[in-house]
Amino acid sequence: MRHTTVPRSDSRPLAPVCLSVIVPAWNEAGRIQECLAQLEGCLAHLHPEIIVVDDGSTDGTPREAAAWMARHPGCDAQVVSIPHRGKGRAVYAGVHRSHGDHVAYIDADLDIPAQEIDRLLRWHEAARADVVVGSKRLLTWRELPRPLLRRAASISFSWLVGWLFHLPVRDTQTGVKLFPGPWLRRVAGHARVPGFLFDVELLAAAADDGLRIAELPVSVAMRRPASRIGIPDGLRCLLELAQVAASVRHIRRALHTLPSMPPPDRRIRWPGRRAVAGHGAPGG
Predict the structure, then answer these.
(1) Looking at the predicted structure, is the pLDDT value of residue 274 above 50?
(2) What is the 3-state secondary structure (H, E, C) of the chain?
């Protein structure tokens, strides 16, 4: 896979990384700097590794991200540019370059505020879960109004995914999730779904591998006027569900051939406890 990389803005030796945050971005030049500013501001106590993966943008997204990083040399951040192949490929490209004990990914469009990642981390520890999924459907009264057709399609899709893969979550597609870093890096090398159904692929593989999955309601701003997922994408996703099922079987076989690894460590090594003045133990 051909790609270009803008190195981290700080060339000093890296300390152990608690959290890697992957930001897949496709034509987000108008939002990417605000997204990075939110991530730095909300997660500064964790000193996160931030990886922006430009999915073949044509509007200068990588240039805008690199400009922000140049103005913030203390932030551990980098930009990776790959050909446009879909959100799944973008996230997996970031996973391959991550080093964190925990890896989160979040959409660049700011529909989900960056502080929700911190809430996922705290819920991961409190609920003793391996994977934490942000959900906009867990509490229906928090869900923002959407067109009836889109709501019906979302409910139908969730029912179909639940029936096919027996996942313990109601919402697989909200754009913020947290995984154990070592496990995710093992799986990323064998994943096969390039588009937005990679979320289902990962969650099905995690459930199949015995990881505990928890769901947490998150705030949703709906800043984008319309979804990028159209009717042709909805029809294509039905075909991709078969690809997801085949990929999960492939991942299962691949993991069984690799050396065994210890169960994910659900304890978080919070850098704030020892490295940042004014930050104490994680709260609720």
Answers:
(1) no
(2) CCCEEECCCCCCCCCCCCEEEEEEECCCCCCHHHHHHHHHHHHHHHCCEEEEEEECCCCCHHHHHHHHHHHCCCCCEEEEEECCCCHHHHHHHHHHCCCCCEEEEECCCCCCCCHHHHHHHHHHHHCCCCEEEEECCCCHHHCCCCCHHHHHHHHHHHHHHHHHHCCCCCCCCCCEEEEEHHHHHHHHCCCCCCCCCHHHHHHHHHHHCCCCEEEEECCCCCCCCCCCCCHHHHHHHHHHHHHHHHHHHHHHHHHHHCCCCCCCCCCCCCHHHCCCCCCCCCCC
